[in-house]
Every structure is written in structure tokens, then in C-alpha cells.
Design goal:
Length: 112
Amino acid sequence: AGIGKCVAMDLARRNARTILACRSQERGQAAVEEIRAATGNPAVVLRPLDTSSLRSVRAFARGVLREEKRLDVLVNNAGVTGLPFAVTPEGLEMTFATNYLGPFLLTNLLLG
């Protein structure tokens, strides 16, 4: 939803292979279908990613590196605010993990 969906829509309109990295399979798949229908681009795909989980970040990066020939653009757009204090199963504060650690790790794992 929001900025991320708008960016994905624009990339798909430019005929780019576009990977939506989403926490929610249901919401992500709905976005994929909407973007494909609006742009006519069948190369819009969904991959699960929860940036609050370093395990999820590592699995996503492994999949991208294994399945994609190249990666030209990475848009880190995940973020949360106003959550009550919570700790991830990995022992990290939820907001810090989601907004900073996850995207930082993802970017570094995807660098050449």
C-alpha cells in the first residue's frame, strides 16, 4: 500500500521485472494482481519478506540472488511507527529491527 505500491506500479509501467517484498501474502498478492492488470506487465511477482526478522531477510536475499539474473534497483520502503514496545523472536526491538536493521542487512546481502 502507499508509496511502495506506487513505486512498484511505476516500475511495472516501465516494463521492469518488479518484485514486491511483502509481509502479508494476501495483501501482497492483491497488489500484484492490481499492478499486473493496470500495467499489462506479467513480470510482477511476490516474495515474502518481513524486515523485522533477520531470518526472513536472509531467506529473501538468498532467493533473489539465486533466482534473479541481476538487480538494478532496490527500494527499501518498509517501516512502522507508533507500535507499543515489542521484541522480535530474535531479541531485537521491533521498530528498530523493521525500520533499520532489516533494510540495512538486506541492502548489504544484495550488494555484489
